[in-house]
Amino acid sequence: MDIRIYEQMLQEGFSAQRERRAMNFTPICSRERVPMSPKDFWKLYEALNLGEIDYQWPSLSYNSHSSIAIIDWMSSGVHEPLAATFIEQFGVAKAFLSPANRKQLAIVGAQEVGSFQGSYQSSSKEPDALFVYPPPNGPISYTCAVEVGFSERYEDLVEDIRLWIEGARMRMVILINVDEAPRYRCPTYGLQDDEIEDLELPAIRALNTSMVSLEDKTDRFGPLQMHGLTWVNKMNAFLEIWKPDGITGEAKQEGDRKVFVGADYMYELAELDIRFSDLYPIADADGGNQRFPVTWEQLRFVLERGRMQLAVRRCCKMLVELKNRTDAIDDPDYIA
Q: Exposure string (b/e) for 236-274, b if CB count within 10 Å is 16 or more?
């Protein structure tokens, strides 16, 4: 594999990121999984100087067990809010712990982890949220990862779970998977640029979520429209809890899949039963039996809001690409 192709693409991605920040614009996420040897991955990592420069996007991670590099080109607006729900509620639940444990325990957003074992030892990965336990006399321990998948293959997400549980010896992985069906295609696909301009869409900076509406107001997570075009399709979402098998140590799903958005999501789900003792070595007397106060309705609300933002971002992305094409054609040096 010629990694120079990906080096060039990622460098262009970093440059584009700075331009998008200046425009206060963030396009939709595109996650790519690329077969790559450990040697090629770390060569690419060093060429991009990722050990010294902290770029949020694009981000690069690697699973040495499956020899797959994962490139997240940009945020979707779906991953972060769902993961942030756990981070916010962690602060609420910590109030019920003993003062000593309150100081010890932490949860952070995306943070690179590189301390893996066995066939995963050359891996590098950032979860969407990470529970951290720094014991008084020992190294920092990562105890639980929150992974949010958006329109990804379930088998790929399970491979990520195995990386955390079997490669990093985590106590638990919380998987939230959001699926959009049918898969998104820009609603202006196939139109000529003059036909798009005839739609009289708002200026990029004028776009906002107040312009977004449900195609069917009785379907809370159904298609979202803006100016008569569909920018987000119907979504379903579920949550799974994974833990290491007590005998083999292999990743194993615990309990049933909890569908909190979907055709049957209105049925009453049991309370999300995650306790501090699942995440950290805490005795019940010190607050280990305290439940994590994340509710299904909180997750639905956050996803609902994220979908609205996603619709705006997708429309922005299309308008920026249209503007770039138009500017290029107006350039006297442009060659079609």
A: bbbbbbbbbeeeeeebeeeeeebbbbeeebeeeeeebeb
